[in-house]
Amino acid sequence: MSLPDPDAFPCDDVDVVIFDGHCAFCQSQVRRLHRWSAGAKPLAYLSLHDPRVAQRYPQLSHEALMQQMYVVSAEGTAYGGAVAVRYLSRRLPLLWWAVPVLHLPGSAGVWRWLYGQVAKRRYRLAGKTCDGDACRVHL
Predict the structure, then answer these.
(1) What pTM did the predictor assign?
(2) By C-alpha distance, which of 37, 35, 64 is closest to 48?
(3) Taking Cα atoms as reference points, which of 54, 24, 130, 35 lies closest to residue 70?
């Protein structure tokens, strides 16, 4: 399945999901997210390793992008990690069921911690797709 690229849209009025394109786990989650976005305003997707990310989003460092997924809204606001997941849960109708759980008062810290634990282990969860030893630094 091919994911929509930001350049495929006639204007800049889409949210862009920036993810680790070298991570098989991340790729599978982004494909799932794309399926869940059916019926909603489209999302575009960019691997953090794509040179356009540094050009379009200089406020996001490579180090920050390696730590967590980001969603940059059409208005230019960047949401990272668990905050990005919470943002998407409100934006995508098929994720309506997650909204009450993700937005429980006082639960943001738990979701940030949980997201961080998964993000740190993402290469172990579903394998890596880097050539040679390029991903070794992430293990």
Answers:
(1) 0.83
(2) 64
(3) 54
For the chain, list the domains and their CATH numbers. Answer: 6-131 (3.40.30)
Asked whether 18 and 57 are in contact (CB, 8 A), the reply is: yes
Q: CB of 102 within 8 A of CB of 85?
A: yes
**Residue length, the chain?**
139
Residue 4: its pLDDT value, please? 77
DSSP state of 26: H
Q: What is the largest CA-CA distance in the chain?
A: 45
Look up residue 39 and give its two tokens: 């019926």
Q: Phi and psi for 40 in degrees, rounded to 5?
A: -110, 170
